[in-house]
User: What shape does this take?
Amino acid sequence: MNTLKTYAGIPREYASLDKSKIVLIPVPYDGTSTWGKGADKGPEAFLEASENMELYDIETDTEVYKQGIHLTEAITENTSPKAMVDAVYAFTKKQIKRNKFVTLFGGEHSISIGAIRAFNESFDNITVLQIDAHADLRSSYEGTKYNHACAMHEANQNTNLVQVGIRSMDVSEKDFMIEENVFFAHDMASDDYWIDNVINQLGDNVYITFDLDAFDPSILPATGTPEPGGLFWYETLDFLKQVFTEKNVIGFDIVELCPNKYSKASDFVAAKLYYKMLSYKFYDVASEPTDEEEGGLKEKEGTNKVLKFQKEKDV
Ligand SMILES: [Mn+2]
Assistant: This one.
């Protein structure tokens, strides 16, 4: 990956680590996927689509990139699933400590294990909001607990895990499920209040892990294990908007883009989803007109409200 490029080709003044509120970590890892290979190509396709996307968001009337988005070097550790998870954990934690709003783009879903571990150590009482077609609760699969089929097992034990859009699982995973925290796709299809019901299960500090196969394959076919009956675009945005408005979203990842050379539409869905999530997160600050008038980015205040490290410093 070309380290000289910036996210979406934004001007350098909005891309330096120092001045950026947002950090984007690409993790092009595809070590354990079982069917469609190619999630390692996800970050590149996502970044390419991002470069060809408008950076003004009509809905929020903001240009969130002006908050600063720093694209880090990709995490390429792939000697073993565990080594990859450890590398993601260490690097994510480092960025959180810098008080950045940390985002990751995969890669297959196992990259989330290290990220969630870092967030869980850095914030109090986190909820992991998993938007996904698959339960991913197996304790181990094909000889490792860091397989993508196990991506949520650790989060289920150590955090408040809320699963949304689920429509594929093994019967053994039922043992691990917390019934009131699981929103099956077939129930959501006939429940006008599923968004409110999900929000009710979330704590204040929410980390979102968005597996792109949660989307219906008709709008996002380019993923490793597509499943019919998924989420559509506007209901997803309505849902996310509500989560970002009502909760303190502390970070997020987007995973499992498996680019298809015949159709680039999925890459653009992923690119737009990422930008929408940032636009919702920074809506309050990004809609203030002052930044540019004052000649560039202002001194950055803390991005997240309840970082443990800040509290330790206060003591
Ligand atoms: Mn999945």
